């Protein structure tokens, strides 16, 4: 007591403190607590809405805010994706030449404005000049070829250097695909800055530069990261999403769907991708909002029309010949190839990335990117199929030949029944070399310190293999149309086999082998190409690819990179094969020192601070007393430190000798004693508990499905140990580890009668949780 009267007791329950309930960087959120906070907030808004018109309007705006946020995410992501597509196309063409009537035109747009371009030579017009024409005045001859070759390498090195320099200087998190980290974030892990404004700005700029440099990478995976950055930034405009980590992750799940929607023009495939591949928690409400956001993003991208074909899809196909049942055999062969390639790529890429992390190679990211860019440009330029961008290559391979096609892939002696000509044989040799090149260079490119997606390179490998097999089947049918395989459905002179369809199926098979996607991949492929009647071949190849790849390892490329980087992620698809109990995997062992606990009363501020300083645990169980280890609740380390620090500043008389109490009513203290510090408001009164004989497979399922941050383990109703938060999972043994105290030698006292501030956790009866009015009462 002082001269101004009694000092006010700071109670976090009545007077919320800034920072309490938040999480530190590289920590795991508590899904149960976050959902409980949101329910309390929603219940409070609903109750107030019955009292006044203003509160009713606030309730309506709160309900509508989620849809408004989805609208903004779709608009922003669609606009950015359109800009990225246009800029990447322009810079890619700049490696080959420049438009004289306006340097900002790419090759295609430049020749559109020319009246001298013919349909056969639509890529040649006087307004577009190669670097050799500008420098030497001619486009023919060896010297002109060397000049164009050197300029191609120069621009590739310049773009890659700018990309890796910007990433390293301003936003280190902007490198890579981003999908492994987003999967980890959506599972509840916190990586501050990974979805921030600087990451968004640098990723957008460097993605254009990296794709334009000619490196074997795509922009589709990074666009998911860009969309999630947009969503995270826009979440700060709405209190409901800014202050609740679980609600924010619902928005990020929808943003992942938006990313695929704008990357491929596949809104439905994007929603399924988020559901199947990325999201950890995906309620029905998020499904509807993901669909709406993907729709808005696709509409925005269609309005911008970055591909210039008035279509939303990236690789529109129009095959004239239907597929036949006999062709399922080569489609399954493509699935086997895709599965083998996926398994081989994952092992090779992870081995290379591990070498990068553990050797001096990882200390020189700029030099690594420049060397790989130089090697790629040097080997890619002589081959026209590796010189063009990945999207152009896939579009060329998907294409079905017509009378007006001038591509070497259409170098038939006659187009009607398609016997192979000299041009086609040349193209096949170039494609075979391109296949080997793409398979090798993609292994060392994915994972470098530039934005790098894996969808387009994987699809390119599969499309090349599929086109080669398709042409082989086509020639086999032409020269053996009387054999029992083709007789009856492939008559002489008929166009029976479509090589472009094989390229499409091969692309799906290889992408499925690398990522292990199934349903979403098939939907993305038919949205991507418009080939709705070819779903069955796509399904057959995709399923075969997954089965073959799973035979060599169940991890996809994203799960493999999550494990490589040591992120805390409990894979929902992975089955737990051990037959252990929680008591078997607890750390420390029975013979180790007792678990650090707090008592509900009797400890001073100094003792609590000393306990926190001497340990590194993320939280502490609260028990009745050291003698009676009966569980009362659980307190997080961060909340404890913030509350004590704020109490020292805001509550007079709080010193190291002040008593810390977690009971509902403050105990009576002597007149000359310092005032107690009440911290009941920061305590979780209903922590999740299991017994020490709970099987570990059940415990792991509990962590997966409830999204727990920790789980308390009891023995005969007494507090025994704590399952650590997910961010302490050991890499070699991906299970929640436990902290265990020595069992009490005294018999447990009789349980107190449950009141408004006590709880019984006896195993031999009914569990009863009776809490204050701000929490749900649970009686069984």
TrEMBL record:
Keywords: CBS domain, Chloride, Endosome, Ion transport, Membrane, Transmembrane, Transmembrane helix, Transport. It holds the Pfam family Voltage_CLC. Residues 740-761 are annotated as: Disordered. InterPro entries: CBS_dom (IPR000644), CBS_dom_sf (IPR046342), Cl-channel_core (IPR014743), ClC (IPR001807). Residues 586-650 form the CBS domain. The chain crosses the membrane at residues 67-88, 149-171, 191-211, 223-239, 251-275, 328-350, 362-381, 427-447, 454-473, 501-526. GO terms for cellular component: early endosome; endosome membrane; Golgi apparatus; plasma membrane; synaptic vesicle. It is a multi-pass membrane protein. It is found in: Endosome membrane; Membrane. Residues 745-754 have a biased composition (Pro residues). One of its GO terms (molecular function) is voltage-gated chloride channel activity. The keyword Ion transport applies. Belongs to the chloride channel (TC 2.A.49) family. This is Chloride channel protein. The gene is CLCN5.
